[in-house]
Amino acid sequence: MKLAARNAHMMGDAGNGWAILFRAREMIAAGEAVTMLTIGEPDVKTDSAILDAMDASARGGNTGYTDIAGQHALRAEIADRVSARTGLQTRPENVVVTPGGQAALFAAHMALLDAGDSGLYVAPYYPTYPGTIRSGGAEAVAVPARPECGFQPEAAALDAAARASGAKTLLINSPNNPTGVIYTRETLEGVAEICQRRDLWLISDEVYETQIWEGAHVSPRTLPGMAERTLVIGSLSKSHAMTGARIGWIVGPETAVEAVHQLAINTTYGVPGFVQDAALYALRRGAAMEARNAAPYRRRRDIAARVLSGSQAVRLIHPAGAMYVMADIRATGLTGDAFAARLLAEEKIGVMPGESFGAAAAGHLRIALTQEDGLLEAALARLRAFAEARMP
Length: 392
Ligand code: PLP
Known about the structure:
Aspartate Aminotransferase, domain 2; seven-stranded mixed sheet; 13 helices
């Protein structure tokens, strides 16, 4: 008996990243004190008031099938939030609720790409991106953003890739995982220009929109001519420390939202009503709750900047947002893979090699700011000493 051939294409290109993560977990299971700075799991837990709202909803009877595109009140709340934050009038019909941002990414690509089409994505990238694009039978084409350009995607490279591949979609992510970079308005205007010139749909992954340390987050959907060709991916995973609740959304033109709705009828059949009620409660608590959730990462980003400041061996890519920092360790002569493997074995510190986010981040490390301040500071000081001892 044969499995579907598509399974082989869903694997990402994560290189040694998973191996390091799994090795770190094995060491912890064996009782070793490993400082985990690997994945983007908030160390802050879901606010208990949100859990109370979930509990009250479930006990109040909201445990059956729900509206598959999302409960009207939640779609309306998301639409109002987007309208207020972006100035672009958004209606409930522009919103479809999904079980998390990842399901939203999958649904967006399924709705826009046929088998045999091509979809672009910017590298370095969140590791599920290529597999997500490929799972519907499309070809995933990486467009590298270069460290010399501060990992901002360049219009010329996007244009060349779109022309050569005949792509139908472009996936971007700002604030960016893994680099911590926020795309400037100029970058996004370039992206918008290429999307219009090459007739691309834009899928804009904005799951870190509440984690802005410097500058401003511009949603490219608001740029002229973009609302009709942009699908924005949102999630409460990071903004409200609700990774396990699996709740996110897509905002876009009604036709695309309806296509995602049809896909949901045939796949997820909606998101649990009590989770949607908890999400509604969380969103109604407004920006104050989001700021409280984001505060530890902002503080730790400052700690990272201080501890690594002036090092020739570990150079921080200027972190403007999101819960990660990226460091360039090329001066040590080690690859990101080799550095991360040795750091884990010798210092018991788990970080992700840049290579697991694509060749564009080779010779870099991604450090998740997901440990308590003191532990993070001590681990970064050891990481710095480890890197400096390896300088030729
Ligand atoms: N997009 C990016 C860039 C991410 O980093 C993540 C998770 O880490 C996701 C999407 C998916 O998040 P979720 O499915 O938990 O909403």
